[in-house]
Here is the input.
Amino acid sequence: MPVDAKYKTTATASGGGRDGQTALADGTMHLQLVVPKELGGPGGDGANPEKLFALGYSACFLGALRVAAAQSKIKLPEGSTVTATIGIGPRSEGGFGITAELDVYLPGLADADASKLVETTHGICPYSNAIKASVDVKTRTRG
Here is the structure.
């Protein structure tokens, strides 16, 4: 499916990949990467692709919630948040895969409206669309 990209950004990884560095071409962000102990690395301070994915997915899904709320004519409650938990591990078929869980906090919103909003948001959010064929995203909606 073609995408008419309205915005693009570029990053370059160097060093050891997961234990190197990554930086944006425009110079606004540079991160030291470290392999978590759970994956055989030293752990410690630093980022990794899963942390970056969790940051992006939570922010993107919250933004998409705003669009879905406007389209559905449901008022998005003040204080709404999205917490993304991203996991990585070996797949039974070989290689590695990721897991994704979204905890969507919609204070005071009726359960039916919250469920409708989250379902609609999955069709809008670019992160959800990018991974829908390969990752079963688990959602928990709280009010």
About this structure: Helices lie at 49-72, 111-124, 126-131. The chain has two domains: 1-47, 49-142. Residues 19 and 34 are 5 Å apart (CA to CA). Residues 1-47 form a domain with the N-terminal domain of TfIIb fold (CATH 2.20.25.10).
